[in-house]
Amino acid sequence: MALNNTYEARLVQQETAVGAGVQVLLLALLGTAIGMGPAGWLTGLAFAIATWAVLSRALHRTRPRSFGPANRVTLGRAILVGGVTALVADSFESSPPVTLLVGLTAVALILDGVDGKVARRTGTSTALGARFDMEVDAFLILVLSVYVSTQLGPWVLLIGGMRYAFVAAAKAAPWLNAPLPHSMARKTVAAMQGICLLLAGADLLPHLANLGVVLLALGSLVWSFGRDVAWLWRNARNTRTAVPVLEVPAEASMETSETSVEGIEMLELAVR
Fold first, then answer.
1. Do 256 and 222 fall within a single domain?
2. Distance of CA 155 to CAs 118, 125, 189, Å?
3. Please, where are the H alpha helices in the chain?
4. Is residue 106 exposed (0-12), middle (13-18) or buried (19+ Cβ within 10 Å)?
5. Could you report the per-residue pLDDT of 58-70, keeping only the tens digit for each?
6. In the predicted model, what is the mean pLDDT of residues 21-38?
7. pTM, rounded to two decimals
8. Membrane-spanning regions, if any (predicted)?
9. Could you give the CA distance from residue 235 to residue 233 in angstroms, rounded to a whole number?
10. Residue 225 has pLDDT above 60, yes or no
11. Are 143 and 160 spatial neighbours (Cβ–Cβ below 8 Å)?
12. How many structural domains comprise the chain?
């Protein structure tokens, strides 16, 4: 059994290596098509190496029996995000075709609704897959906010940086790590960010319209995070103020019950 698990683990690791190879191939195609400069190449390669290293480490810890079809879809999205990242980095040196950047981003956003459905239909939903999907989404939003910030101003970076600021805050305030209840509003706001930033980045609308779209995205994100933080704070307070209730066994004798009650009163006084 141990040998079989080791063999399957190697197959899983091979899939991540293939993903890194496909990422390099995509960068080569982009470089040939637009003459991508050093900034785009280095950023794209750094993204590919970092994705392979982090994903390989996570797989080594969880040791799944297979990589899974849903994770393959997410890995494909990550490859597209790597291409978008390279194009955005290259945009600081030259002007890459906007249609190419918009096309890669649009496909990545469309596939965002696919990997979850595949996981549910195939019964392969895992905590690792959900985290992988979330991290790819968050990084794409960060990259798009960097790109749009060159057009509308550095304040747009608040959209991409808010989730990372929340993670950093949770290091100092562990109560922020508590699980949140399911919320369709939270999912809708998260999906809006990519669509709004893509629309603004495509530069199809007048400047004021692009500004309004991005402000709408930022406002909804602030509301969503604010609501979640408020819920987590109330949950933490309720947890801290909860007093354990000690019950007296019903079948105990009168003498034992009186002794138990006295003991409980002493414990309650000590807690208070």
1. no
2. 36, 36, 18
3. 2-34, 38-62, 69-90, 98-122, 127-152, 157-172, 184-202, 207-241, 254-271
4. middle
5. 888 888 777 888 8
6. 91
7. 0.82
8. 20-53, 211-230
9. 5
10. yes
11. yes
12. 2
CATH number for the domain harbouring residue 20: 1.20.120
Amino acid at 116: G
pLDDT 10s digits, 102-148: 999 999 999 988 888 888 888 878 888 888 999 999 999 999 999 99
Q: Is the pLDDT of residue 272 over 50?
A: no
Token output for 146: 């960097």
Its domain, for residue 145, covers 2-241
Question: For the chain, what's the residue count?
Answer: 272
- Give the number of other CB atoms < 10 A from CB of residue 178: 13
Taking the C-alpha atoms of residue 51 and residue 248, their distance in angstroms, rounded to an integer, is 56
Q: Is 173 helix (H, G, I), strand (E, B) or coil?
A: coil
User: Which of 62, 65, 68 is closest to 10 using CA atoms?
Assistant: 65
